[in-house]
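REQUEST ID: PR-0412
SUBMITTED BY: lab tech R.K.
PRIORITY: routine
TASK: structure prediction, single protein chain
INPUT:
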Amino acid sequence: MQTTILICDDDPIVHESLRLYLTKEGMRLRSAFNGEDGLNIVKKEKPDLVLADVMMPQMTGLELCREIRKFSQVPIMMLTARGEEIDRILGLELGADDYIVKPFSPRELIARIKAVLRRTENHNQTETDSDATDSKKNKLINIGSLHLDLDRYTADYAGTPIEFTKKELDLLSFLCLHPNETFTREKLLEKVWGYEFGGQTRTVDTHIKQIRRKLSEFKVLFNLMTVHGIGYRIDMDKELQQ
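STATUS: complete
OUTPUT:
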């Protein structure tokens, strides 16, 4: 079936320029010029991916992301003309899968869209594959009182829920499953986000920052370390490794 991309942006030029590039990739586009219309299209038509501008009339992209996450895990990429860190943090914390600042390279955007779609397809295939018993072993991660459930995408510490976004939980679980191993930001983008990208890697830093903030009130039995000039790793005692 043809992939459907919903563009939510109040700028007609953005719609036309993206339509030019994305239709060449064989994708079907739907357009909304405000957040409310975008939300209605998501509910009725269930697109494969949503591109949402942060600043829109009637309902902002951040509000749209929050509303969509109440009923759907459709991949969401945030678009914005602003580069403030607060926008990135809010978008990612509300459940956006990625964040790109205007003006952006169409080639970079297409690469990200394809990677998100591949990751979603692979995840769905794994869930429906009856022979994927080995992967199911890593669906539950228990480290002391910290419990990560990748089947339900929930987390808790000794019964107290921790509200991670899907991508935060993906990143944390990946590092937990590879304890004491250092990963560059580029490698984490490839392994967790599903694409190779040699440009801006602040997305990884933003997610790490949010994970640390949410874990800070709990006595987790590992350290989420910054390896300066390289990337990140989780330091964990061998007896705690799953």
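NOTES: Residues 135-240 form a domain with the Arc Repressor Mutant, subunit A fold (CATH 1.10.10.10).
REVIEWED BY: pending
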